[in-house]
């Protein structure tokens, strides 16, 4: 499919993991992809690999999404360079897990600033360009944890905030040809999951109704649909891509 032929897709946190999988998906479907990541070297390597694999433009820029001034300059420069911004994917995020009483001010602000404030700064910067073209797709990343999760007060607050932000953006852009949606991934095979203790990982997987982890490609496929023209009548939703874990426990 060529659902994104000549569209400009901006992905934060696109250097590895889910962001890289989505960059690959969008580029394979014809998009001009711009990866923004604080890890400049990894981002450039990912962009070069994708460009070589699919024969499409794929760019990488060093960007700290917590710097609102720099974010606005970056988004404006992309729009100036390519003439438009069609899709913004907010995938940048970090974790600093601990019990609430042991979370430092620094770890609280770090997670909120990257995941929640960064998502807002990028969306705010992209909206004028999308409104000008009367078209846009904003996709942000929550988590299955947004409903509450032990030892993740900062992360949960950020991911729940993204849900509220997404719903509000959807309302504010509904008449402008723009949609705003979120994905809440479950246990996906990423470097973060691979770093977990094996016993803890097995315990988590046992709670998934499908009894297996997901693949980054599962997220990329969901993202591509929500960001495609075909999803024009879908806005303000949180799509769980989690093998059923969000359904809850079963007495069986």
TrEMBL record:
Location in or out of the cell: Secreted, Cell wall
GO biological process assignments: monocarboxylic acid metabolic process
Database matches in PROSITE patterns: ADH_SHORT
Entries under PANTHER family matching the protein: 3-OXOACYL-(ACYL-CARRIER-PROTEIN) REDUCTASE, 3-OXOACYL-[ACYL-CARRIER-PROTEIN] REDUCTASE FABG
SUPFAM superfamilies tied to this protein: NAD(P)-binding Rossmann-fold domains
Alphabetical UniProt keywords: Cell wall, Oxidoreductase, Secreted
Primary location recorded for the protein, binned into one broad class: secreted
Keyword Isomerase in annotation: no
Positions of the Ketoreductase domain: 7-186
Record-given protein name: 3-oxoacyl-[acyl-carrier-protein] reductase MabA
One Gene Ontology MF term: 3-oxoacyl-[acyl-carrier-protein] reductase (NADPH) activity
